[in-house]
Structure formats: structure tokens, C-alpha cells
Amino acid sequence: MRSSAHITGGSSMRIATMATGGIGGFLAVKLSKAGHEVVTIARGAHLEAIRTNGLTLRSTDGTEVVHPFLATDRTDEVGEVDVILFGVKGDGLENAARACLPMIGPETVVVPFLNGVEASDRLTEILPERNVANGVARVSTTISEPGVITQTGTFNSFIFAERDSKPSARIDALRTAINEAGSSAPETQDIVRDLWSKFVLFSGLSGVTAAARCTIGDIRTIPELEALFRRAVAETTSIGRALGVALDADIEEKVWASMETFPPHGRASTAIDLEHGRPLEIDWVSGAASRLAKKAGIDAPVNAALYAVLLPHKNGR
Ligand SMILES: NC(=O)C1=CN([C@@H]2O[C@H](COP(=O)(O)OP(=O)(O)OC[C@H]3O[C@@H](n4cnc5c(N)ncnc54)[C@H](OP(=O)(O)O)[C@@H]3O)[C@@H](O)[C@H]2O)C=CC1
Ligand SMILES: CC(C)(CO)C(=O)C(=O)O
């Protein structure tokens, strides 16, 4: 096992997925297939299934199975890696970040893909700032059974950059790896704007589909739900602007237009988690919008109300 890491663009990289759920599992399959040395961090029945049967990705393109270089819950046996693809649910960030420490060398880059706008800052509370990047995922994937990741829809793009959005060799190398693996990692000039652009959409989508137990189709066709969604989106846009984020002038129209690109039966992961009695990421979405509104000195009553009605279900059943 290699113990030091050097990124050379276009060559094989040593990549860990912390952890190997919808996001990490999808990328682990793609990057393993492309010849990278992928270490999948997982636990419980999911880890056992990956060890026994490999990691499976089911999508509209068919089924792909890979046997990762190493599948483990022991990050202290991994050694240093070039990249950590960081995808856990919001409440698990701190524990998972601490578990990353033994895999981090001077040049390792940790790329978070959590929903919300605070993951990168939270990581810097635990990991050295020079090792932390920032990122946003546009994909729809889930662990459908232990060892199996299922992708719904065909869109998949992963936008990431250094925290200050400046170009770097390690980010370029990862972008090349993901693009060559058949996924998509477009360049960005402003990762904070990208994060907030998704957050503006997601605050409406997550809050409304979960609180109203409804689908995207319902938001598109029931005027009262459309109005609620648009008010959440408008509030989050104002919060971002008040905090200095350079959101596009027509972001609200773009967000509404993007609702057409989702299948009508679609819902945010928050609504699906609610239905299954799983913990909700609301502290990092509607809750974050309300919290950041206070910081920005503006009112966000719709996000606050969406957060409040979901709070009793926050810890799942
Ligand atoms: N999946 C998607 O399509 C998208 C997801 N996102 C965001 O990305 C983030 C990750 O989502 P997703 O990948 O779907 O989440 P998942 O719940 O599918 O995967 C997270 C995995 O991490 C495991 N895990 C958490 N902490 C640890 C740990 N310390 N050690 C080992 N394993 C650990 C969990 O295990 P266990 O179940 O045992 O807790 C679970 O298997 C979320 O913020 C989500 O909102 C954003 C865009 C799209
Ligand atoms: C809306 C979607 C699928 C977009 O990537 C998402 O992020 C989620 O539901 O968690």
C-alpha cells in the first residue's frame, strides 16, 4: 500500500470515499472502473456486502460492479490518499471528518458534496484548512440495498474547487479523473455561487416536498404550493445576496425553469428520508436558511416555518 501521495494530472489517483453512500458510491464505481485506486470507507451491512459482492451501481445505463482496492471501516489502515470524496449526511460530518485524519497528507484534498452551504467551513474546524476544498453535487443516487447504489435520472455533475475558487493542480487532476470516468466535473470560477445556486433551489425543494409530503409535479401544478416554493426561493436568494454571494440576476427564474427538468414524481431526499423515518438534514437546509437570515439581518419566515413543521421529525423514527 502506498503511504505517500503525489497527484499527477491524468494518471492514476489514490481516492477514498468517506463514505460510500449515494454520492461516494456512485463516484467509487465510476473511478474504480476508470482504473483509479479507490478505497471505500463504509460500515455495517453495507461494508460487508461490498467486501463480499463488490459495489454495484444500477442506473438507466445498466449495472456496473467493481471490487474496490480496499473496503474498510478502519481509516487508520488506509494510509495517505490523494483525494477524499466526502459525502455523509449533515449530522454525521464531524465524526466522519475526524475519521479522515489518518488518511490526510500534506497534499490530500477533501471535497465535500453535502447539501447546504456550510460543509466546507465545518470541515475546517476539524481538518487543516489547506486540505479542504468545496463542492456541490447534482445527481440523484441512493443506497437501495447493502452494497448497491441506484441512480435515478441521468443527470450527474460534480462541481468543486479550492475554497477560494483559485485554480490548482489537485483540483484539475480530480476534474480530469471524473470527466474521464464518464461523469461530469465542469470548471467553475465561483464555487460559493454554485453552492448557493443549488441551495436556493434546494431550500424550496427540500422544505416544500418534505413539509407538504408532495412531489415536484404537485409544486408545478398546485398554485398554492408554487407560491410557497417561490417564496422560499426568494428568501434564500435574498439571504445569499445579503451575505455577499454573487447570485445571477435571474436566479429565481432559472430555479423555476429547472423544476421542469426533474421528473414530476421526484422529491427531495429530505421528503424521502421523512417517509422512511430516517433523520432529516433540515438543520443544514431550511434551518440553515433561517439561521443565516438572522446573521444577514433579514426575515425568512417561510424557511423558518418549513423548518419548524419538520423539526418534530428531525431525528427520524
Ligand atoms: N445522493 C444524492 O443524490 C445527493 C446527495 N447530496 C448530499 O450529499 C450528502 C451525502 O448524501 P448521500 O451520499 O446520499 O448519503 P447516504 O446516506 O447515501 O450515504 C452516507 C453513508 O455514509 C455512511 N457514514 C456516515 N458516517 C460514517 C462514518 N463515520 N464511517 C463510515 N460510514 C459513515 C452512512 O452509513 P450509515 O447508514 O451507517 O449511517 C451511509 O452509508 C448529503 O448531504 C446529501 O444531501 C447532494 C446531492 C445529491
Ligand atoms: C434534488 C437533488 C436530487 C438534486 O441533486 C438533491 O440534491 C437531493 O434530493 O438531495
From TrEMBL:
Residues 20-155 form the Ketopantoate reductase N-terminal domain. Pathway: Cofactor biosynthesis; (R)-pantothenate biosynthesis; (R)-pantoate from 3-methyl-2-oxobutanoate: step 2/2. It catalyses: (R)-pantoate + NADP(+) = 2-dehydropantoate + NADPH + H(+). GO terms for molecular function: 2-dehydropantoate 2-reductase activity. One of its GO terms (cellular component) is cytoplasm. Keywords: NADP, Oxidoreductase, Pantothenate biosynthesis. One of its GO terms (biological process) is pantothenate biosynthetic process. It is an enzyme of class 1 (oxidoreductase). It holds the Pfam family ApbA_C. Residues 190-310 form the Ketopantoate reductase C-terminal domain. Its EC number is 1.1.1.169. Belongs to the ketopantoate reductase family. Catalyzes the NADPH-dependent reduction of ketopantoate into pantoic acid. This is 2-dehydropantoate 2-reductase.
